Task: inverse folding
């Protein structure tokens, strides 16, 4: 039985790159939030002062939020376990559920940008490209299928 | 289109809907923007709860989406009346 998981280093690296790719959206959402707060307080006499206090707080909160997101995302990624048994592929998910696809029930398996997608009639498993030993697991699956 | 770019584009569209909903004066447009926002929030809520890749704690935290959802629905009811 072969078991494949994310090592802490790989999971952290994956989460970090995901966080970086979401930075533009976080930035735009932050600006939109400030804009909405500003237009609703046009008559506030010390708007500049309020912004001068709010912006650094927002920046610090954003930084802490991203750091916490990376940390919890790393833990969550590490809970993914992909097992190749004699009968099929098992995916132990972070949500606690297990998805099992037997080799003879695989309808589709193909390489996509995110990794190796395996589908049966009503289940699907995606082996992420970032997982440790991705080439080994995808090679083993190809052999069995 | 790669996944992060797609997610960013959808996110920006939702932000545009939100800003539009709170700034536009035209009631009809406001209602359209509001319905768009409510739909996107409900879809994201369902997707999060059905996802196998997210942990239970993340799913629990995602129930907070109901707060803005109810606020926007309440706003929409006021507009319709």
Result:
């Amino acid at each position: 039985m072969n078991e494949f998981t994310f090592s802490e280093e790989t999971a952290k690296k994956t989460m970090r790159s995901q966080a970086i790719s979401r930075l533009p959206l976080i930035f735009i959402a932050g600006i939109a939030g400030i804009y909405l707060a500003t237009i609703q307080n046009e008559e506030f006499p010390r708007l500049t002062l309020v912004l001068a206090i709010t912006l650094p707080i927002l920046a610090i909160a954003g930084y802490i939020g991203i750091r916490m997101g990376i940390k919890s995302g790393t833990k969550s990624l590490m809970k993914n376990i992909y097992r190749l048994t004699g009968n099929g592929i098992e995916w132990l998910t972070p949500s606690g559920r297990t998805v099992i696809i037997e080799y003879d029930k695989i309808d589709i398996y193909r390489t996509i940008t995110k990794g190796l997608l395996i589908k049966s009639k009503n289940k699907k498993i995606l082996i992420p490209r970032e997982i440790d030993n991705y080439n080994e697991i995808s090679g083993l699956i190809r052999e069995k299928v | 289109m790669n996944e992060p770019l797609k997610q960013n584009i959808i996110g920006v569209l939702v932000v545009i809907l939100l800003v539009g909903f709170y700034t536009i004066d035209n009631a009809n447009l406001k209602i359209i923007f509001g319905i768009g926002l409510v739909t996107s929030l409900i879809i994201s809520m369902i997707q999060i709860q059905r996802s196998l890749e997210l942990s239970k704690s993340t799913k629990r935290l995602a129930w907070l989406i109901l707060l803005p959802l109810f606020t926007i629905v309440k706003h929409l009811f006021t507009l319709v009346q």
In short: The interface with chain B takes residues 18, 21-22, 24-25, 28-29, 32, 35-36, 39-40, 72, 75-76, 79-80, 91, 93-97, 99, 113-114 of chain A (CB under 8 Å).
